[in-house]
Amino acid sequence: MPRPPRPSALYLFIGVVTWPVLRLVFRLRATGREHVPDGGCVVAANHWSSLDPWPLAIPLFPRRFLRFMAKQELFWPPLGWIVRGGGGFRVDRGIGDREALQTAVGLCRAGHVVAMFPEGTRRAKGFRKSRSPRWHAGAARIALDAGVPLVPAGISGTNRLRSLGPLRVAYGPPIPLDDLAGHEPGAAARVATQRLREAIADLERGVDSGAA
Q1: What strand order describes the sheet that includes 66-71?
Q2: Domain total in the chain
Q3: What's the helix, strand, coil split of the chain in %, to 5?
Q4: What is the CATH number of the domain that holds 108?
């Protein structure tokens, strides 16, 4: 198997500098890292904060590094240089950017880990379980089109950073996709997304109880 792609110098710098901050200040703990393969894959998680990619990525550092979609409004200098160096690539969320999806598929096929947040946007403050966000099928579509594993993850604590609450991340076994081969792409993505949603909910409940 080819060696995983190498991160940028900026990504390495951010990882080295912030790893002790997350571990010591925010008490980051992670489980299930073995479920993230050495080859290309999609890692999909629940979404509390714009900082979610940070604790999602650090437990995998330096073995793997994450690539993630970032809204095009962030790509102005010098912020855009930082976002790009940190693994981000541009997406126009207002028009359902097909080019960004194809970029993500290409990255997965090249061996990258693409991070996705299928809830589509951050949860509002005071979010209740009964008010579920509208889930998007992009993560499943990318994994199916690229032929790579779809790995669920649960994140807890990024909505409590000001209180220095503990951060917890759990990576789960890849979602079964083999039985969806040959199905109509849209239908296959919807089935895979429902499976993903259930797996992330289970992982999130687990990390929430572990952070208590």
Answers
A1: 29-31, 168-171, 150-156, 41-45, 113-116, 66-71, 88-91
A2: 1
A3: 45, 15, 40
A4: 3.40.1130.10
